[in-house]
Amino acid sequence: MEAGNNMDLKGRNFLTLKDFTPEEITYLLDLAAELKRKKKAGIPVDHYHGKNVALIFEKSSTRTRCSFEVAAHDMGMGTTYLEPSSSQIGKKESIADTARVLGRIYEGIEYRGFGQEIVEELAKYAGVPVWNGLTNEYHPTQMLADMLTIREHFGTLKGLKLVYLGDARYNMGNSYMVTCAKLGLDFVACAPNNYFPNQELVKECEEYAKTSGATITLTGSIEEAVRGADVVCTDVWVSMGEPDEVWEQRIRELTPYKVTAEVMKMAGEKAIFLHCLPSFHDLRTKIGKEMGERFGIKDMEVTDEVFESAQSKVFDEAENRMHTIKAVMVATLGEQGTVYAG
Ligand code: CP
Ligand code: NVA
């Protein structure tokens, strides 16, 4: 695949998909598909020896951390994992100072943490590409994985209807709206009134939609939202870093928006289910068990039936985290020509 081979993203940060054109996003998806094909075929893409990346995680992670590490190692790079308690960041050393130090040692820096302004600040001072591994507001690497998964399944993205049920004002809801608006998908957020993305972001996305042909709908009606949907997605009701006190209210207010077999039936047989994971689809987790006992429930945002169904593509989606994260590193570190050469 040679499409987009001349797209130059070298030196760019990857902080939110708002910063990327539809063509650039499509290029990253094409690159990820090519890297995935090469990995499956056993064709190495490992011309990054001697380069190193820093992985800062102020919140926990399974997929994102493993994806960055495996992607970097596949390509011959070294990694340093900085866990929440193991660095000076924010405690004894400012973000700006940390950025200037790490920028002298590493070729790229991944950051997962709290406010988007932190990753923006890191990027401002680092002098090397900074990649957002999740903030309260955005989860852009997850979006590439989701779009690749959807494209692999349907063969296209434009014109598909993607419905997000649940807390749509946090990183996943915001990011889906941005990504769909950029790439021309019909985005529907289905939630109670106070769970929608903020008006400013909605307006920005409506502007993107004018060029891409996307539509943006915010509705409380599950039937309206889900009918004819191609992709049904959700996320946990309480995100990392939120206080324990919010669980009760979230469970009460968001339970009607759970993805159930009835919801998937309304969408139709062709619809797929996506979830960034981790997911509370049963009680086999510490928190799930605790909530099950406290509130007499056996699942939260999605039933086990849907999660385990043939319509659920969550593990394809999880795998694609690695291929898409690899594409982000290749594109922003440069030398992507070598990827297409082999
Ligand atoms: N989806 C996702 O970001 O997973 P992790 O929190 O495990 O990285
Ligand atoms: N909204 C979730 C996403 C986890 C990948 C969180 O921020 O915890």
Neighbour order of strands in the largest sheet: 7-6-5-8-9
Task: Tell me what portion of residues adopts beta-strand conformation.
Answer: 5-15%
**What is the helix content?**
40-55%
What's the total count of β strands? Answer: 9
Give the helix tally: 14
Q: Distance N terminus to C terminus?
A: 11 Å
What's the main sheet like? Answer: 5 strands, parallel
Mean pLDDT, nearest integer? 96
The rough form would be described as globular
List the helices and strands and how they pair.
Elements: H1 22-40, E1 52-57, H2 63-74, E2 78-82, H3 95-105, E3 108-112, H4 116-126, E4 130-132, H5 140-154, E5 161-165, H6 171-183, E6 186-190, H7 199-212, E7 215-219, H8 222-226, E8 231-234, H9 247-254, H10 261-267, E9 272-275, H11 286-295, H12 304-307, H13 314-333, H14 337-341
Parallel strand pairs: 1-2, 1-3, 3-4, 5-6, 5-8, 6-7, 8-9
Helix pairs in contact: 1-5, 1-13, 2-13, 3-4, 5-6, 5-13, 6-7
Phosphoric acid mono(formamide)ester binds at residues 61-64, 134, 142, 276-277.
Describe this structure in words.
The protein contains 14 helices and nine strands. The chain has helices at residues 22-40, 63-74, 95-105, 116-126, 140-154, 171-183, 199-212, 222-226, 247-254, 261-267, 286-295, 304-307, 314-333, 337-341; strands spanning 52-57, 78-82, 108-112, 130-132, 161-165, 186-190, 215-219, 231-234, 272-275. α2 crosses α13 (314-333). The protein starts with 21 loop residues before the first helix and ends with a helix. Residues 134, 170-172, 235-236, 239-240, 276 line the site of norvaline.
